[in-house]
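Q: What would this chain look like folded?
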Amino acid sequence: MEDMLPLFPLGTVLFPGMVLPLQVFEERYRTMVSDLLDRPEPREFGIVAIRKGREVGTENLHELYDVGCVARVRELEPMADGRYSLVVVGARRFRLLGTDDSRPYLRGGVEELPDEAGDDEVAAEAAAVQAAFRDYLNALADRAGAVIKIADLPDEPVLLSYVVAAAMIIDVQERQGLLAAPDGLSRLRAERQLLTRERAMLRVTTSRPAPDLSRGPYNPN
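A: My prediction, written as structure tokens:
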């Protein structure tokens, strides 16, 4: 069923179950937050990655990807200068069916996308991705001259697929492809290929950017 959702285009991808801090400073998105505050909880809007265009400025009625993630407001703090500081958590995926610009900010007609694990092979694929992801993190640590303490990874295949997708250092297009995968098994298979590629690249180059290993851009919910 189609539903209308406020949209916040970004140059990044939000995954279900992952936490993202946001600073809202453009006037149109201040209006969006103000409208959200007038509604009962849960207060939600859609984050959609930008395929072409910029996050800020007057020329950013950009080209958007057609799969996004509902962002549920977990923390909201008004700032003295009119900005808002938000912490949101990804709730569920949606497909963007169309857009409406009758408000200062963009809204979209969306339909929810189900999160299914896939067939009986998903458990074995999840175990393989857990091992590959640990190898990838160890390779990053070796390259950065750091030590990573790897916490327990989730066993549930769909959640694992989102944790790995959010944590890998890959470009927006690849991250978006993982978000749009039809099910957890397809996403895990794609991730195993990406992890194999990234580990191979880490072995042959010293110019790849090292992450801040003390924290990542997303945290599991």
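The radius of gyration is 18 Å.
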